[in-house]
Amino acid sequence: RFILLVKTLLFILNIFTKYISFYLSNIPLYTIKFYQCWRLVTTSFITTNLINMLFGLIVWVKDAISLEKSIGTIRYIFIFITNSIFINLIYCSIVYLLNYITKNDTILINNFYGFYKVNNSGIWPIIICELTLLCLNNPDSKIQFFFRPCPLRAKYYPIFIILLYALINNFRLNYGIISGFIYGVIYYYLFQNRLNISDETIRKLENSFCCKCCAGFGSFVNIDNINNYASSTSGNIHIINSFAHIPDGISPFQGK
């Protein structure tokens, strides 16, 4: 609810002033050169397009709620922030690499295709990251695309989505989505449960004043009240494990 509330509030404020998205989105020049590191996190809360926001929330909310109930609110927020940071660091690396190859400094600020600012904002990179984890855990499952069987295997599905998005947008690659895919692959094969937060730390945070106030709203999930969770398992691995039972015919558009 906190993520939904902040995203909605920032979207409304951005209608009246574009400074909201400018100062909170991940614009590589400002994030890296001017050390505005908060952008690595705040950019995931920024969406400037209503259709993009609504469709993203429809795809994300159901499983986000399910995951939060299974691992607790504090751990879920930790996962969300961690994923956002690493995905956006990868995004900045891609943009700076393109800057080095093209020798064009304006690429750090200007859009590759127009007059908009280059930035990686919104929740779609995180959605693609979780989709990649799901597909890698079920690599040979068959994808059901918009209620129709598709011969494509799950392990190729994230790449298909990236190319489809590029096709819809006049063959323009979305480097934010690509960054989410890259981080999903890196996490699955390298990080696994190395990125974690201990139960003891979570309990200390839950006893803090801010968390106790949030718990009063009724949506806060305490770690001692969760089910189907192994204390040694990190959130992203729980994302993988929670979908391990999915049979052939998984449909990322029905949930993920």
Characterization of the model:
Residues 112-116, 228-234 and 239-256 have low confidence and may be disordered. Helix content is 58%, strand content 4%. With 256 residues, the protein is mainly alpha-helical. The protein is built from 12 helices and 2 strands. A two-stranded antiparallel sheet has the order 1-2. It starts with a helix and ends in a 14-residue tail after the last helix. It has helices at 2-16, 19-24, 28-33, 39-42, 50-71, 73-102, 124-137, 157-168, 175-191, 199-206, 209-215, 235-242; strands at residues 142-145, 148-153.
Order of secondary-structure elements: HHHHHHHEEHHHHH
Number of strands: 2
By secondary-structure content and strand pairing, the structural class works out as: mainly alpha
What is the percent of helical residues? 55-70%
Please count the helical segments: 12
C-alpha Rg (nearest Å): 19 Å
Biggest sheet features: 2 strands, antiparallel
| Side-by-side strand order of the widest sheet | 1-2
The proportion of residues in beta strands is under 5%
Low-confidence stretches: 112-116, 228-234, 239-256
What's the N-to-C terminus distance? 18 Å
- Mean pLDDT across the residues is 78
- Shape type: globular
